[in-house]
Fold:
Amino acid sequence: MITIITAGIAPGFALLSYFYLRDKYVEPISLVIRMFLFGCLLTFPVMFMQYIFIQEGLFIRDWQQAFLQAGFLEECVKWFVLMYGVYKNGEFNEPFDGIVYAVSVSLGFATIENILYLFVYGIDFAFMRALLPVSGHALFGAVMGYYVGKGKFQTGKKKKILLSLSFLLPIMLHGMFDYVFLKFDHYLYFIVPFMLGLWWLVLYKVRLINEEQMALKHTEKLSV
Structure:
């Protein structure tokens, strides 16, 4: 049991640490942990709703399971927790903070999901789970957080567009991810380039938003 719990927790904490340390102006660890725990708690009602959908015979087609039962339901709940749990908090004072907090929520969800999966299917799946579903949740969260962070500090139409993207893009990415597993027997041929491309996109966004923040801080210092 201890081995399974450790294997289930380790990838989530490793990925959370990575994104947390990429923030040039680190967030309060207590708030990050709180959002992580919120994500953990989300797992149970979401899985219960998914169980009801299965029992009632809803979303029986592959695209419905991928984009609605998984993508929409899971990312929608995470988005609302992010928006109502930390968006208006005074500590959310820089664009990169959106990435940190969104990844925290996503990895809390992914960690509990991962532990439950390993209890059912065994420790042999731990490595593949870490590389694909757990890191997938982290990347969907990073995309969500990037646009939430950018949108928070904009106004008017641009703000609405960015916040809409923070809601819609993770749903689409999550749906595409799950659809590959449901639709194709040889899913690795499709999922590996998908994940590599997503990692490239997220790392590019992380570097870009950090450079923007540092440039803004430099400008603020010069204006003082």
Observations:
- Residues 188-223 form the longest helix (36 residues).
- The radius of gyration is 18 Å.
